[in-house]
């Protein structure tokens, strides 16, 4: 596992993979290429998964994308990626936010002691400001329409927050 931006082929692969899941509206390849806070899992010499964090205002960090390619699932890679992103944010004394409808991610959020909510009204101001700008993308608007039927059959979105305190130790 390495902390580095995605290569162009990895960004294209991630873009296509995100188009196939109802759980993430996704990003354009250009947006993916601009992400800086990225943990990449390489499995058997191949791109196996990614975890992308985005720093928001007021000391908040959003673990925005956690994706493991289907070939490499059920090996604990997702948890390793999420833990690496979590620990990096904690070392930088950031508050944490994650939004997901994926059962595995929701379980990790609970394990990491996040305060869970089914209402975005409980999200911090930094998240509301970011989401308003984030959703103004024509790409995400089209994806939300394209994926709307599939999203209705999924688990509801849940958000998790955890404020940083100096007494917390990084997770193993």
Give the fraction of residues assigned to helices: 25-40%
Q: What's the count of strands?
A: 7
Spell the H/E element sequence.
Answer: EHHEEEHEHEHHE
Order of strands across the biggest sheet?
1-2-3-4-5-7-6
Distance between the termini: 15 Å
Largest sheet: 7 strands, mixed
Strand fraction equals: 15-25%
**Rounded to an integer, what's the Rg over CA atoms?**
15 Å
Give the count of helical stretches: 6
Assembly state (oligomeric): single chain
Low-confidence stretches: none
What overall form do the CA principal axes indicate?
A: globular
- The class by helix and strand makeup works out as alpha+beta
Give a structural overview.
- By secondary structure, the protein is an alpha+beta fold.
- The protein contains six helices and seven strands.
- It has helices at residues 8-19, 29-34, 77-91, 103-111, 125-134, 138-152; strands spanning 2-3, 38-43, 46-55, 60-68, 95-100, 115-117, 158-162.
- A hairpin with a 4-residue loop joins strand 3 (46-55) and strand 4 (60-68).
- The radius of gyration is 15 Å and the shape is globular.
- It starts with a strand and ends in a 10-residue tail after the last strand.
């Amino acid at each position: 596992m390495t902390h580095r931006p995605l290569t162009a082929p990895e960004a294209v692969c991630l873009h296509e993979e995100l188009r196939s899941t109802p759980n993430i509206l996704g990003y354009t390849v250009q947006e993916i290429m601009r992400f800086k806070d990225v943990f990449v899992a390489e499995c058997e010499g191949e791109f196996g998964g990614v975890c992308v964090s985005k720093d928001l205002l007021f000391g908040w960090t959003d673990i925005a994308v956690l994706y493991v390619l289907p070939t490499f699932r059920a090996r604990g890679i997702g948890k390793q990626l999420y833990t690496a992103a979590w620990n990096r944010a904690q070392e930088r004394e950031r508050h944490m936010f994650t939004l997901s409808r994926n059962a595995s991610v929701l379980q990790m959020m609970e394990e990491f002691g996040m305060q869970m909510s089914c209402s975005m009204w409980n999200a911090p101001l930094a998240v509301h400001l970011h989401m308003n700008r984030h959703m103004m993308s024509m790409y995400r608007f089209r994806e939300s329409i394209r994926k709307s039927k599939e999203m209705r059959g999924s688990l509801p979105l849940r958000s998790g927050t955890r404020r940083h305190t100096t007494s917390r130790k990084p997770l193993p």
